[in-house]
Amino acid sequence: MPQWSTRRRRRGCAGCCSTPGTRPAGCRRALASPPTGSAPHLDGLIRLLLLGDPLPAAGLPSGAADDLVALALVRVRGADLVPLLEVRPYGEPDTDWYLVADLGTPVDAEHVLGAGGASLTLARITPRVPVDRALDLGCGSGVQVLHATRHARTIVATDTNARALRLTALSAALSGVPGDRIELRAGSLFAPVAGERFDLVVSNPPFVISPGRRFTYRDAGLSGDALTAQLVRQAAAHLAPGGRAAILGNWMHVVGEDWRERVGAWVAGTGVSAWIAQRDAEPVADYAAMWLRDAGVADGPALDAALQEWLVAFAALRCEAVGFGWVVLVAPGGAPGGVDGSRSAGGRQGVPWAHVEDLSWSQRLPSGDEVLAFLDGCARVEALPAPALLAARVVLAEGATITRTEVVSGGHASALPPRLGLAGAVGPGGWRPAVPTHPALLAALLGPATASVGAHVDAWAQAEGLDPIDVLGPVLTTLRELVRLGIVRTV
User: Fold this and answer.
1) Letter string b/e over residues 410-426, b meaning 16 or more CB atoms within 10 A of that residue's CB
2) The CATH number of 97-383 is which of 3.40.1280.10, 3.40.50.720, 3.30.70.1170, 3.40.50.150?
3) How far is Cα 133 from Cα 482, in angstroms, rounded to an integer?
4) Whether 111 contacts 219, CB under 8 Å
5) Residue ranges per domain, the chain?
6) pLDDT per residue over 292-332, tens digit each?
């Protein structure tokens, strides 16, 4: 899976300006004593377009100032150039891109953000496989568009904000993306692509649950989490056979309701399969304060008044907390051997599945490749009902790990259940913890693959003087999780 990275553009730069959300003090310090042989005009561009500092027009080569003005990146104020936008280096390890976005704290309703935490999350979890057509719904400054150029033949980028479309085009042009690879369309949600289907849909929409519509990038103007629900349902209808969608969203935790059931219902009847993961959840007071401060509302009477407005709106919705996460959709009808929401693996066919879970404990985000592997595991599990899974022959995957731990108490050591993982993915350093595994299942996995897992478990239970029925329940639950994570595969 390609990873994003921020790239240093000059020797001696501290790199702080290349990382979204960091302070530029280190970069200014480095620019104050440039290394021998550095290009003065490059120092000037860094000051102007990354740090947002005015620059004397004489500090740039002849004609460069005119070019910047023509691109609407700067304006002339007396003898100085004053930045109107920021141009930030961005990329994957083997690329050099530029993101063009608005400067500073959002003030204008049409403010366009650069690469933030949400857009980086989406960039990381999106599966990166070659596709014909991709859609970036709500393109902003063009983060997802740039990543999609690595593996999509053509990309359609939409936004309700005309400034966002212009800045996406500028980001792509400065990054060397041919103009015929990207088609920009204005409009809300899927209206600009009505009747069209795509192999990949990505969206970092205005999902914030707020009482008004102050900023286009943040507020959809719909009640509660209706925007995310509507986007998920409509995305399902715009996927080509075997297509995938990766959508970020917020959802409400409503008093007396299970959030998993609420959000899982969004995909019911759509005909696609879904993995819904909650990365974090915040009480409504903390959630509101976070977004108000993000918009530049300072502590004091202004924050208190705005916070009261938000809390009244949440109370009317009976919302006690807000979850943040993603919804990954998989349409049926993919190529043989690929991830398919209705695949057959010796079991049920044509049955979409939905896996909803809380991932707030996860130590890191999964990569796109890990997301693909997990989707494949979910499809395999859902295609095999319990009797078929117990009748299957199973083996540990290449790279599987077994961790055995003993705990000392009162001078005596007692063994904990062994844990199964997958090197680099599940367990230490992975995006999920290793899975505690019943010794009967571990014995079956380490035994010869000539008998079914059910037969191995029966033999183990009889040898231990136990009723196999008492053992099969926990074994089956763990086995499904191990198959879902790719630690165990059927043969």
Assistant:
1) eeeeeeebbbbbbeebb
2) 3.40.50.150
3) 33
4) no
5) 16-85, 97-383, 389-490
6) 998 888 889 999 999 999 999 999 999 999 999 999 999 99
